[in-house]
Every structure is written in C-alpha cells, then in structure tokens.
Amino acid sequence: VAACTSAIVTAERSSEGAPLLWKNRDSSYWNTCIKHVAEEGCYAYTSIVANTDNHTNGSFGGINERGFGIINVSSPHLPSTPKEE
What we know:
By secondary structure, this protein is an all-beta fold. About 0% of the residues lie in helices and about 35% in strands. The chain has no helices and six strands. The strands form two sheets. It has a four-stranded antiparallel sheet with strand order 3-4-5-6, with no helix packed on it. Strands 1-2 form a two-stranded antiparallel sheet. It is globular, with a radius of gyration of 16 Å.
C-alpha cells in the first residue's frame, strides 16, 4: 500500500515541549540524500533532495536554521477536477 502520512504536533502536546513536523517517505523515488545549504544572504537549511549531481529536482522536506519546516505530501485519491468533486 502506498500511503502518505503527515503530522503536526504543537509544542504544548509534544513530550519534549517542542513542535514536531513529521512525514513518512511516500515516493517511489528512493535515491535521495540529505543536503545542508548555507549561503550568504539567506537562512541555512537542511533538506531531503533527489540524489543527483546537481540536486535540482526539488526538495521533499526540510527545516531552516530558524526552525521553519516544510514538507510535501501526495494526495492522489483526492478529486483533481471540479467534475470529480
């Protein structure tokens, strides 16, 4: 079964008092790596990316040095057109 599960837990509800952003790995593309980027003029971030020579295939999720995190989730079972809704 291909599932996409994500969760957001507030700091008040987590056991360590910190917010939590979680997702399972739901892609058929398994050749990924973790990349840390620290460029002048923007926040440093750590991200899960496609493991290619130039890492330009986008990010599956990550977090920056200020604590902002973002993930992507797939929802292929949802209607894609107004007619299907």
